């Protein structure tokens, strides 16, 4: 199907009288159907053809050329006339200037047609590039938005991780403090359990009918010190409780002695707290000896088989 640009080009060729055959019939049918644009182009082309010969400067041919042309005309007159198609007579009926103008117009028309087609192609390419550029801009904007969201999410995650690390450090500090407190409490509980066991032993000894209470008095080095010994002569053991004894140096320790006559027998080592209190469970002493006195001395750490240091407490049955 012919597009309208081709109809306009045929209008220019029709004005030149160069349209024939089927093209001529189709164009005249197109004009008869009523096409204002083609009619306008046809009028413009005819007006241009009318003005072009007037714009050409007349050229006088040389005499020799003129003579040859006249001879040719005479020869052609003697020849029988030829029947030419109606459209062909239009071409030969034109003047030289009109033919030149027609040639120029046809060349310009085809050149303009090619130029328009090239411009249309370039416009199409530019439009496609603009469309592709717009799509890529949209994709880039979407990627930028995604990147912004990802960066924001990453920043939030980093902030959350930092917060969790700080919270974890605080929890570890609290846990360490709780561990230390638990160790302290366990130590206190162990001391209390040991003290409770000793008190239970003391109560058990007190409940024994054979138990004897021996009071130990403080001597010159520590006259304010006191001691009480729960002694079971049948079991050959007992329990010593002290108060007011001075703190001993690191290289010293208190030692209890059970005295049979003039022979002291080691009966246990002990230390005191800040108040001078101590609780000592006596080992089972030899049954071959009859103990009548008990004393406490300050001895080198580790104890000695015979007393060497000052005596601080002394008591008798």
CATH topology of the domain at 210-316: Immunoglobulin-like
Portion of residues in beta strands equals 15-25%
* Corresponding CATH architecture of the domain at 210-316: Sandwich
Q: What is the string of helix and strand elements?
A: HHHHHHEEEEEEEE
Give average pLDDT, whole number: 84
Which shape, going by the Cα principal axes?
rod-shaped
Number of separate helices:
6
Give the low-confidence spans.
82-96
User: How big is the Rg?
Assistant: 69 Å
The first-level CATH class of the domain at 210-316 is given as Mainly Beta
Residues in helix, %: 55-70%
Structural class, from secondary structure content? alpha+beta
> How far apart lie the N and C ends?
145 Å
Q: Widest sheet: strand order?
A: 5-4-7-8-1-2-3-6
Number of strands: 8
User: What is the makeup of the main sheet?
Assistant: 8 strands, antiparallel
What's the arrangement of secondary structure elements?
Blueprint: H1 4-16, H2 21-32, H3 36-55, H4 63-78, H5 86-92, H6 96-206, E1 212-218, E2 226-232, E3 237-243, E4 252-260, E5 263-270, E6 278-281, E7 293-300, E8 311-316
Helix pairs in contact: 1-2, 1-3, 1-6, 3-6
Question: In words, what does this structure look like?
Answer:
56% of the residues lie in helices and 18% in strands. The chain is built from 6 helices and 8 strands; from the N terminus they run ααααααββββββββ. The chain has helices spanning 4-16, 21-32, 36-55, 63-78, 86-92, 96-206, and strands at 212-218, 226-232, 237-243, 252-260, 263-270, 278-281, 293-300, 311-316. Strands 5-4-7-8-1-2-3-6 form an 8-stranded antiparallel beta sheet, covered by helices on one side. A hairpin with a 7-residue loop joins strand 1 (212-218) and strand 2 (226-232).
């Amino acid at each position: 199907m012919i597009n309208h640009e081709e109809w306009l080009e045929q209008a220019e060729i029709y004005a030149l009288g160069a349209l024939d055959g089927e093209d001529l019939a189709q164009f005249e049918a197109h004009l008869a159907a009523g096409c204002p644009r083609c009619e306008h182009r046809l009028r413009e082309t005819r007006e241009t053809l009318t003005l072009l010969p007037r714009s050409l400067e007349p050229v006088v041919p040389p005499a020799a050329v003129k003579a040859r042309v006249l001879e040719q005309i005479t020869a052609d007159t003697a020849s029988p006339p030829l029947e030419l198609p109606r459209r062909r007579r239009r071409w030969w009926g034109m003047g030289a200037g009109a033919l030149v103008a027609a040639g120029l117009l046809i060349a310009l028309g085809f050149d303009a047609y090619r130029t328009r087609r090239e411009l249309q192609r370039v416009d199409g390419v530019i439009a496609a590039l603009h469309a592709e550029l717009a799509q890529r801009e949209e994709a880039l904007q979407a990627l930028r938005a995604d990147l912004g969201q990802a960066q924001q999410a990453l920043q939030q995650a980093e902030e959350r991780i930092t917060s969790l690390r700080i919270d974890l450090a605080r929890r570890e500090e609290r846990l360490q403090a709780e561990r230390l407190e638990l160790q302290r409490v366990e130590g206190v509980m162990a001391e209390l359990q040991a003290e409770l066991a000793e008190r239970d032993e003391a109560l058990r000894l007190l409940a024994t009918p054979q138990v004897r209470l021996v009071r130990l008095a403080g001597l010159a080095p520590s006259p304010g010190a006191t001691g009480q010994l729960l002694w079971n002569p049948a079991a050959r053991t007992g329990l010593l409780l002290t108060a007011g004894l001075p703190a001993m140096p690191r290289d010293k320790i208190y030692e209890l002695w059970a005295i049979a006559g003039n022979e002291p027998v080691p009966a246990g080592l002990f230390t005191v707290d800040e108040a001078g209190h101590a609780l000592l469970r006596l080992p089972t002493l030899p049954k071959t000896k009859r103990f009548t006195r008990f004393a406490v001395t300050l001895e080198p750490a580790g104890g000695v088989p015979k007393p060497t240091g000052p005596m601080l407490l002394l008591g008798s049955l």
